[in-house]
UniProtKB/TrEMBL annotation:
Species per Swiss-Prot/TrEMBL record: Eudromia elegans
Subunit structure: Heterodimer with OSBPL9.
Principal location class: Golgi
Swiss-Prot/TrEMBL catalytic activity: a 1,2-diacyl-sn-glycero-3-phospho-(1D-myo-inositol 4-phosphate)(out) + a 1,2-diacyl-sn-glycero-3-phospho-L-serine(in) = a 1,2-diacyl-sn-glycero-3-phospho-(1D-myo-inositol 4-phosphate)(in) + a 1,2-diacyl-sn-glycero-3-phospho-L-serine(out)
Official protein name in the record: Oxysterol-binding protein
The organism's taxonomic lineage, starting at the top: Eukaryota, Metazoa, Chordata, Craniata, Vertebrata
Domain PH: 4-101
């Protein structure tokens, strides 16, 4: 009885993008089954600013943080609320769920069970069929108004009777037949001409009609569950009615999507149960692990994403997904269908941007600040071609918080322009000892080693940190990237928020840089990637900077993947180099001396990264973590890949919920928060500084 007492207090309520979050005074009226809110506590005696009927509602703690939750009413109205802390959120969620369960069961107990009747939608293709003719006694309004009646003691609310549900089902059957006729009419149109079956407005109409029928069916099944509760008894404690799987077959658009139900736990593959049972990452060792490059082997996998057939076959899934999106909508938390995934994690994709280590190592060879800035621009512009695998716009796996990726490259010294001031003899004796330990067991030092480590340091927002270094060349790069995705209509835009820092310790120079936006275009046909936006590279010490523009293709004319840029000396505003071309084809560098250099990216040699075998990787290293998803995608088993992917994502949500409830902060493994950014815990500029300090102390 204590749990059914009214509760009240201040919560923050999200209004819209303009107004944002506002404090409002909320009252949970358990007797009436209502959640009401007022401007403040003093106006509580006035009419509520808003009221939600809790019967049939869904109360959902948000996974974006430990304070937010949503109340989704059966009428379709939603409140997005935020408590002051995790404890207060749990208090409100628990009381709301108890109240919701109580009033939902009350509706079910006051309604007799549904009459046994089966409906065949396959035979309802004609609107003139006698079985779907509307009878005068039908009253659709009574169906849709059920969520708007307030429950109060002493009053009996008009309830939906079984024959009304039969009428509604027949109306839905008729609408479903009309929707099928619409789809057939569109698909029978020619593929060329003034009005085609691929017209974007018609495709959107198909998607919207599918989503509408699915939404109506979800509502119908909530009512069915309410009636069934009388036969099955009370719902388990703490549960509420949630959205159910559709019974109406709206073509095959759920085949590989995010709305499939899975078999019982006992029928799941052992690999899925293993994915779900991996313990909380915080309970595993969070100590930074030193990876021995000698344990890494040259990568032999070749997962080129050049299969265009899958996208064409799954267009209906894309249409269904589009029907649920709005322009400008943040896609960070949208679950995308599995078939559009690349067979690699986003962390590994960042590593693939380092596939030309010879150009990376050559930066420090420049004899002047001007040369080094130009070398960095050349490396920067050549990194995107290999980072994108194949022409199709597929999406890498979203990393799980705590996920890591390690690899390295071995670059023969003969393939890097030699410089007398940058070889091993330039290192101090103490640094040579450190280097010798790092390369212990190697018989020859005929190559440079570039090490790479990446870690997913945050889930909301999704932030990745990555770091690469070459001890022999005294250079390293540290970066953190937050990916923000938005729906733009017929394309998807991804903004790369963050900053990178290249350190050339031999010269005492630091170069800051940003990353361009990426766009997936033509998502209804054959999606492709283009880059866009302006990025800047700056070196405060030397006064040199570079401004690079990635041009998106205009609506009419123009070239794809065009890029232009210039390097200048800030003090004199003198342009010392101009660059133009395509970032995935040929680049032209024109220097102040009049000399011109062409770089054909399609002919640049790619150095394969070295990765530890799966059996030597930790449970949260990318390839081992996603191995079952990757194997299923390679085998073409999309359903199985979806099941493994869901198991990982569900485990992450459960772990985050547990941390919120226990107020346990997440501890990163390799990166530390510094200001607004993330920095590798043992960057080269710190380790070499420590060695030099120890050398000075010994002297």
């Amino acid at each position: 009885s204590d749990h059914m007492e009214n509760i009240y207090g201040y919560l923050m309520k999200y209004t819209n993008l303009v107004t944002g979050w506002q404090y409002r005074f909320f009252v949970l009226n358990n007797e009436a089954g209502l959640l009401e809110y007022f401007v403040n506590e003093q106006s509580r005696h006035l009419k509520p600013r808003g009221t939600l009927q809790l019967a049939g509602a869904v109360i959902s703690p948000s996974d974006e943080d430990s304070h937010t939750f949503t109340v989704n009413a059966a009428s379709g109205e939603q409140y997005k609320l935020r408590a002051t802390d995790a404890k207060e959120r749990q208090h409100w969620v628990s009381r709301l769920q108890i109240c919701t369960q109580h009033h939902t069961e009350a509706i079910g107990k006051n309604n007799p069970p549904l009459k046994s009747r089966s409906f065949s939608l396959a035979s309802q293709g004609s609107c003139n069929s006698p079985s779907v003719q509307r009878r005068p006694s039908q009253n659709a309004i009574s169906f849709f108004n059920v969520g708007h009646h307030r429950l109060s003691s002493g009053k009996r609310v008009p309830l939906l009777q079984p024959d009304h549900l039969v009428d509604v089902r027949e109306m839905m059957s008729q609408a479903e037949g009309q929707q099928r006729d619409l789809i057939r009419s569109i698909e029978c149109l020619p593929v060329s001409g003034h009005l085609t079956s691929l017209d974007q407005d018609l495709l959107m109409l198909k998607a919207t009609s599918m989503a509408t029928m699915n939404c109506l069916n979800d509502c119908f099944h909530i009512l069915q569950l309410q009636h069934a509760s009388q036969q099955k008894g009370s719902l388990p404690a703490g549960t509420t009615i949630s959205w159910l799987e559709p019974k109406i077959s709206l073509s095959n658009h759920f085949k590989n999507g995010a709305a499939q139900s899975f078999s019982a736990e006992i029928n799941k593959p052992a690999s899925v149960r293993e994915e779900q049972s991996i313990s909380e990452p915080g309970q595993l060792t969070r100590e930074a692990e030193e990876i021995n490059p000698d344990e890494e082997l040259e990568d032999v996998s070749d997962d080129k994403e050049d299969d265009l057939g899958a996208v064409e076959e799954q267009r209906s899934i894309i249409l269904h997904l589009l029907s649920q999106l709005k322009l400008g909508m943040d896609l960070t938390r949208v679950v995308l269908p599995t078939f559009i995934l690349e067979k690699r994690s986003l962390l590994e994709m960042y590593a693939d941007f380092m596939s030309h280590p010879d150009l990376f190592l050559a930066i420090t060879n420049g004899s002047s600040p001007e040369e080094r800035m130009i070398c960095f621009v050349e490396y920067y512009l050549t990194s995107f071609h290999e980072g994108r695998k194949g022409a199709i716009a597929k999406k890498p796996y979203n990393p799980i918080i705590g996920e890591t990726f390690h690899c390295s490259w071995r670059m023969p010294k003969s393939q890097v322009v030699a410089d007398a001031g940058s070889n091993l003899s330039a290192l101090s004796s103490s640094e040579q000892v450190t280097l010798a330990k790092d390369l212990e067991g190697q018989t020859e030092l005929d190559y440079y080693t570039v090490k790479f480590v990446a870690e997913q340091v945050s889930h909301h927002p999704p932030v990745s940190g990555f770091y690469a270094e070459c001890l022999e060349r005294k250079m390293c790069v540290n970066a953190h990237v937050w990916t923000k995705s938005k729906f733009l209509g017929m394309s998807i835009g991804v903004t790369m928020v963050g900053e990178g820092l290249l350190s050339l310790l031999e010269h005492g120079e630091e170069y800051t840089f940003s990353l361009p936006c990426a766009y997936a275009r033509s998502i209804l046909t054959v999606p492709w990637v283009e880059l866009g936006g302006k990025v800047n590279i700056n070196c405060a010490k030397t006064g040199y900077s570079a401004s690079i523009n990635f041009h998106t293709k205009p609506f009419y004319g123009g070239k794809l993947h065009r890029v232009t840029g210039e390097v200048k000396q800030n003090a004199t505003n003198t342009v010392v180099c101009r660059v133009q071309g395509e970032w995935n084809s040929v680049l032209e560098f024109t220097y102040s001396s009049g000399e011109t250099k062409y770089v054909d990216l399609t002919k640049l040699p790619v150095t394969r990264k070295r990765v530890r075998p799966l059996e030597k990787q930790g449970p949260f290293e990318s390839r081992r973590l996603w191995q079952h998803v990757t194997e299923s995608l390679r085998d073409g088993d999309i359903d199985k890949a979806t099941e493994h992917k869901r198991a990982l994502e569900e485990r992450q949500r459960n772990e985050e919920r547990l941390r919120a409830e226990t107020e346990t902060p997440w501890c990163t493994k390799y990166f530390l928060k510094e200001g607004d950014g993330w920095v590798y815990h043992k960057p080269l500029w710190k380790t070499l500084s420590t060695v030099q300090t120890q050398q000075t102390d010994n002297n």
